[in-house]
Amino acid sequence: MRRLLIKTEAWYQGRGFHRLNRFFIVSLFLTLSATLGCTTVLTPMKAGADSSVTSEEGLVLGRIHVTGSEGEQLVSPDKPFHARFHIQWRVREQTLGKDFLVDGLPSDGPFVLKLPTGSYQLTALSFDTALGIWQTLLPTSFTVSPRECTYLGTWELRTSAGLFDGSIFRQVFDQPSLARRDLKTFLNDGFGPPLVTQLSPAMESPLILTFRTQGTELTSPP
């Protein structure tokens, strides 16, 4: 597997980095919660469903594989991530400032999204679990072109979570043959080879838990 090319991004290790990012993450998600009412909710395409793509739309293709900190499968129900969960992305089209919530991304497998054409930024990634919602920042920029497929690679996400917080480590791999097969699983109407997006092959970010208790959502302190 070939790693995708590095995009210039400044990411630092150490406690100062994590404290700063925890503060930034909490501030960001408070803002996102306030503006969620203006967000368009989307779900990934399903194989065999209507696959028509207009001249004002394009596709985003990728794979996600979530494991524990040592690469183990998440199968134990008594640990923070080891229960059924689904993944959400919040993305913003940067030219118009329009926000989208992508709900129901897989924790192990391929996905295809249909989005309006434009330049996008992933503003938040979250895991909706039985304990609550784990949220993180994994800054990612990509472009959606008319009737083209943008490929984001295979995301290997390793999670390490305690009672209130944790961290996530992302590695991105380029798997062109698998990407072409995945695309044909969802649709086969003459799309050309997926266009590869350049992403940082390795990135670490803190996780913040917003847990639910008796109908109330509380966020762990920074």
Please tell me about this protein's structure:
The chain is mainly beta and 222 residues long. Helix content is 14%, strand content 47%. The protein contains 2 helices and 14 strands; from the N terminus they run βαββββββββββαβββ. β10 and β11 form a beta hairpin. The longest helix has 21 residues, at 15-35. The radius of gyration is 17 Å and the shape is globular. Mean pLDDT is 78; it is low at 1-20 and 22-36.
Quick structural summary:
The protein is mainly β. It has helices spanning 15-35, 176-186, and strands spanning 2-3, 40-42, 57-68, 86-93, 98-105, 108-116, 118-128, 132-136, 140-144, 149-161, 165-174, 195-196, 202-213, 216-219.
Per-chain topology:
Blueprint: E1 2-3, H1 15-35, E2 40-42, E3 57-68, E4 86-93, E5 98-105, E6 108-116, E7 118-128, E8 132-136, E9 140-144, E10 149-161, E11 165-174, H2 176-186, E12 195-196, E13 202-213, E14 216-219
Parallel strand pairs: 2-5, 3-10, 10-12
Antiparallel strand pairs: 1-11, 3-6, 4-5, 4-7, 7-8, 7-9, 8-13, 10-11, 11-13, 13-14
